[in-house]
Amino acid sequence: MATVAKAAPQPIPRIAPREDLNPFRIAQIQFDLAAEYLKLDAGLRQILRTPKRVLEVSIPTKMDNGQIKVFTGYRVQHNVTRGPAKGGLRYHPGVTPDEVKALAMWMTWKTATVNIPFGGGKGGVVCDPKRMSKPELERMTRRYTSEILPLIGPEQDIPAPDMYTDAQTMAWMMDTYSMTKGFSTLGVVTGKPVAVTEVGFPTGHNAGDSLLYSEAEQAWSMYHFYEWASHTGYVRVVTEYGYRDGEEGGGYGIETHAGAHKKAYTAVQEMAAGLACSACS
Fold first, then answer.
1. Annotation marks residue 122 as catalytic
2. Of the candidates 80, 88, 76, which has an alpha carbon nearest to the alpha carbon of residue 108?
3. Which position among 86, 101, 122, 192 bears the catalytic label?
């Protein structure tokens, strides 16, 4: 009797696990790895991997067409053991509670790493600022500020600009907060217009601001670009005037990797020295 050969079993295709891109879970995993390396106490780990306060607010705003639109905003304080919470405010349609919690946690680590007396905080509003007029943004910002008043203040939580917010946004926030106090409270936010900072206070001291705020952020962004350029072998890198592919005139040029690195690193050091001054108060 002939033997019938059995067909070899086909391998079961393996489906790669879907990558977890939840920012807060990523931040917690990062913390867990660091905590294990440092052998932190189990109780301390539970405290540090959880935000201290999470506030969600409704922001009814009158639009230019006369209709009322309700936006959703968040303010998170991750930890305030070392000092007032410090962290930016972002406007974006993709803002989520977990994103804001993760950014607040990372702010805690950043302020602790450079040893300045702040904790970690972050804020966000779910909106599309590109489709909003300046008056609409002002009304929304002022209402958001009034809703988070119980949390913010120079000794509690100090917002700053972030994605799609700027010095004008901070000026609106400072003015709204100050109206509830009866006097100008410059230290409630950083990243204000320099003209506001200079009224009655030496820049960078007590006013809670620095002339180098925006320049420092720009230099830090440039530094990361230089790092990318050097590791990818890209030769056309930005000079002190900016970057545009294929152009050599009009303030744009070509530098070697070594020259670009040196310029970027020096700029970051100089800006960091200026920022350190703003934290001394």
1. yes
2. 80
3. 122
